[in-house]
Fold this sequence. Notes:
This protein is α/β, with parallel strands linked by helices and 432 residues long. The protein has helices at 14-22, 66-80, 96-107, 122-128, 150-160, 188-198, 231-235, 244-257, 273-284, 304-314, 337-348, 354-367, 403-417, and strands at residues 3-8, 40-46, 49-55, 83-89, 112-117, 139-141, 176-181, 202-203, 216-220, 223-228, 260-266, 288-294, 322-325, 380-387, 392-397, 425-430. The structure holds guanosine-5'-diphosphate (GDP).
Amino acid sequence: VPVVAVVGRPNVGKSTLVNRIIGRRQAVVEDTPGVTRDRVPYDAQWAGRQFVVVDTGGWEPDAKDRAAAIAAQAEIAVATADVVVFVVDATVGSTDVDEAAVRMLRRSAKPVLLVANKTDNAALEIEATSLWSLGLGEPYPVSALHGRGSGDLLDRILEALPDPPPITEPGERGPRRVALVGRPNVGKSSLLNRLAREERAVVDSVAGTTVDPVDSLVEIGGQTWQLVDTAGLRKRVSQASGTEYYASLRTAGAIEAAEVAVVLLDASEPISEQDQRIITMVAEAGRAMVIAFNKWDLMDPDRRYYLDREIDRELRRVPWAIRLNLSAKTGRAVDKLAPALRTALRSWEQRIPTGQLNQWLTALVQATPHPVRGGRAPRVLFATQAGVSPPRFVLFTTGPLDAGYQRFVERKLREEFGFEGSPVEVSVRPRK
Ligand code: GDP
């Protein structure tokens, strides 16, 4: 999601403008010189485009003078935003402080839109033209308070945003795609047969969808699923057709084609290197994952406690995967598969509203700031969710984070928002 930063001196009307952009009609909190307001991102939308507006707030409390403070603020905006909206008070004209910020903004390659705010009437529009002297191009006369000119400004903002990614969403979604993977003999064919028998239906076609001939449509838990590349499982050729290399290629292809993978393990044997490789493949492909321990009927109940500990250790890199203990032979817990797949997919597509995300993040980094390294501690400024399937987050920071601190934020993110069954990617965009 592209980021638009709103920068300017205190009292030029930044928060009023932000309220106007996000379409909120609340009492407006104006900047008060000397008071720090957090940099708060808000979700905004105009003409069908989504973006995030960051209100860069007021003063840096430790800044010695106004010019330095606004330059620092502008610097952060430039580093983190795709487009900068620089706000000047048209009734005052440009000041030394404005000019200091402009020098900084012009050094960057980011598009900057100059807003002459408080242009409440046509007479003031003439005043606004004097702001050409700042060298940021045409000033856009706007009255954030009354709404004058704000539609034009939003159009300009959209034009300046990077091109949106192509829309790949199909009009109507077919069945969800599931890969059933695992090393030979863990019971993949048996599970497929069990599912087909339990549900009394291996559906062969669904109206309006094209299904690859190697796939199977199976009804599980009242929902039709597309099991990718099951031809081998049904005709029992997967083992006959030879090399481990070929099998692993086929597994990788199935994972790639799927949205969620069921990794089948043999509960009566230790987790092998080959099992681990398949689990890693799913995680690295960014797919949702259910790990199913098959042949649970062979489990000795006395081994349970010991085994749980061992499994936790073996699966410590994918603690988020949903685990099921089932038996293709007896049918035990096979009915748990569909709910597990639904949970994993829900997590995989979960979107956290920007406001909620940052409320949580602000509290987290206040309670546990980054440790001081060489006299400095990078600050986490804010975060946005850059995408789904799987969920991807970007942390905007004042510098690179320790790997340990980044993992801490990731872990807390999961604790707060769940994401059961789905990988989550967190990346850091430090200010340069
Ligand atoms: P695939 O290679 O993963 O497709 O594995 P198969 O489905 O061919 O199963 C391998 C062997 O494990 C066969 O002998 C199955 O009968 C047996 N098997 C599969 N599932 C279970 C189970 O839940 N319990 C037990 N006891 N045996 C199973």
